[in-house]
Hints:
The protein has one domain. It has helices at residues 23-34, 38-50, 68-80, 87-95, 105-113, 154-164, 169-182, and strands at 3-6, 9-12, 20-22, 65-67, 119-125, 128-133, 136-141, 149-152. The protein has 7 helices and 8 strands.
Amino acid sequence: xxxxxxxxxxxxxxxxxxSAMRLSQAVQLLARxxxxxxxxxxxxxxxxxxxxxxxxxxxxRTPPEISAEEFALLLIAVLAETGIGNAAERAVEYADVSxxxxxxxxxxxxxxxxxxxxxxxxxxxxxxxxxTVGGLHTTFGNPAADGFARFATGPTLAAIAAEWGGMxxxxxxxxxxxxxxxxxxx
Length: 186
């Protein structure tokens, strides 16, 4: 994967983007980047598998591969969960919330993962999400003004997308640094 920096934006070489990743690698990636226990992310992934939203291992016990869209759903699930028991339901609920502009949260997060949209901060609250995607601030659903909140910063999302795309963790750290500079967070 190559990263190009031009003017104020960076973009990925989409011809070299990875289109799938083993679920076990995705779990480790999210746990490391979001600073969560891998076991918790794994349980959330398992809930999504048993809800039919992520693939199960085949008969040979080969870990399943997931697409960018499935990875985006797992990321939403991890950010939106308020308890393991309802993680799959909340993931589906939050993935389907729309912005006033008509964009679904799932589509926006998948575009970030595929390197098609500039990542910004996402703040997940009860009822919805506020964030910046592609340089535009938007609200998905109707997020509460206070209470539960979980967030992923633009640099964190940029690093996640870079690793999804095949970069090493060190290269993804550089992408995160570029994102911080781009967003004025020196």
